[in-house]
Amino acid sequence: MRTLRFLLQKEFRQIFRDPSIIRIIFMMPSIQLLILPWAADYEVKNIHLSVVDHDHSQYARQMVNKITSSGYFILQDYSGSYNNAMEQIEHDKADLVLEIPAGFEKKLIKENESTLFMAINAINGVKANLGGAYLRSIIQDYNREVRMKWIQLPRFSPELQIEVTASNWFNPLMNYKIFMVPGILVVLVTMVGAFLASLNIVREKEIGTIEQINVTPVKKYHFILGKLIPFWILGLLILSIGLTIARVAYGIIPAGSLLVIYTFAAVYLLAVLGLGLLLSTYTSNQQQAMLLSFFMMMVFILLSGLYTSIDSMPGWAQVVTKFNPVTYFIEVMRMVVLKGSGLKDISTHLFTVLGFAVALNTWAVINYKKRS
Amino acid sequence: MTTNNTAIYAEALTKRFGDFTAVDAISFDVKKGEIFGFLGANGAGKTTAMRMLCGLSIPTSGKATVAGFDVFKQTEQIKRSIGYMSQKFSLYEDLTVRENIRFYAGIYGKSDAFIKEKTAFLLKELHLEAEANKLVRSLPLGWKQKLAFSVAIFHEPEIVFLDEPTGGVDPVTRREFWNMIYKAAESGITIFVTTHYMDEAEYCNRVSIMVDGRIDALDTPAQLKKTFDVKSMDEVFLKLARKAKRSGD
């Protein structure tokens, strides 16, 4: 116990004496949480639209008006030539081309139906998909308006139509910030837990102090605990700072209990610290550790369901996400913050992550050699 | 043979890394209170041998005891009985002089009272009282090395292993450093030291010279010079080291 006390005292002194660590602890969560949620938004706005109007009718103009007043589209170009509009797409000035054929109005009135043509620039897949969908729904809306105008009585359409109304549970306004902030916070906690810890240990290897420790009677578990405990505390500190920022800046107050979040975080940190420890046993200098961390972080983030839904990933990728601890914490955070889930609801997650913690730490301890 | 007077005893101690035999069946013994010089060219296997004796590396075969403890089975007891100063400077640069002393003494299980009293004494002896609360980073190299040595023997070990302790240090400081080594030896600490400076070899009671993983010569500096019929340790070393087939670290 006494040995551990000395190790911890030394570790905390070093951590709090290092200005870059202080910056990481306080600046990183502030900056990431204050900036990223505004940018990491799935809603697509500012879609550049190029309209090719061969009709020049009142209906066509009304429709274009309706589209541009929706707020999602910027009318980039309004011309009479499809080639001209395609050129806009080729120069990346337009994302969507809407072609209104000649006789659009006439056909609509006479034959009760008319066709439009849409060309989508699919280089940016998300924008193309959503942009096309928005445009379709606006045109459908317009279609309904036109029909309402014509069919005065009876006031319903003779054709049967199913209209879907939806209400968004747990996040009624579909506020992406509420969705993103807990996720970003998880990434932060992971970075501190896994990567600061591994860098710290590798640094001792690099400067040779670990060798000095190895010739002392300090036991393997003393040394490892001496490294894990400070970063475990730092991880929880970052979480607290993050939750405070979420509350103050975004008004995000977890619907569930903070105790559930902290309980899960405590176990989760054990798992990522085990990962950090493991990384440090496989690397011999800080550069290697950095590169490896960077690579792992990319995989962790992209396969965690933070930005893209896991359900839409191919089967093998979904399997990979099962082995990604970040996935579980992000799910838990969203469940607790948005839905107010309790300990019972997240128990599967908790035990899975506990399993990770045991496995990773065992592996790391076995691999950490005091003698070679 | 181990007697009560033996600090280190090695018999056919060997370390292989795959096909490569880093240390090839070395045998020697070091008496208590002796200053034992462990010489050899770069890559001769000095550091590997030392790491085995310190319990950092498991020998492939052979026998060895350090402070009466077996290097295979009793490494934890060995670690309690020795001090070690590595080639790389190994104090924490981002801790102060006082914090470093306290930390290393603490992990050797020394009491607060012991640490407090001895720290004051040590700081005075090293003339570091004014620097006690400065970061070690800010000290000149020579001072750092002297401090590192003092920290290595702070917990009063039976044996201290010094791996090229004076590398890169100026001659004046080196002389001071050796005075500290003599003082430690007088107080009963056995000194096991590697060096590349042949004038330092002359300061040792006995010297062994390693060539390609084997000990090719072991005697007092005076006797070695006589055996090889030369005037200085420098020449003894050159005569032996030239035979080496291995080179580099």
From TrEMBL, chain A:
Residues 136-371 form the ABC transmembrane type-2 domain. GO terms for cellular component: plasma membrane. Gene3D superfamilies: abc type-2 transporter like domain. Keywords: Cell membrane, Membrane, Transmembrane, Transmembrane helix, Transport. It is found in: Cell membrane. Its main location: membrane. It is a multi-pass membrane protein. InterPro entries: ABC-2_transporter_component, ABC2_TM, ABC2_TM_bact-type. GO terms for molecular function: ABC-type transporter activity. The chain crosses the membrane at residues 21-40, 178-202, 229-253, 259-279, 291-310, 346-366. Belongs to the ABC-2 integral membrane protein family. This is ABC transporter permease.
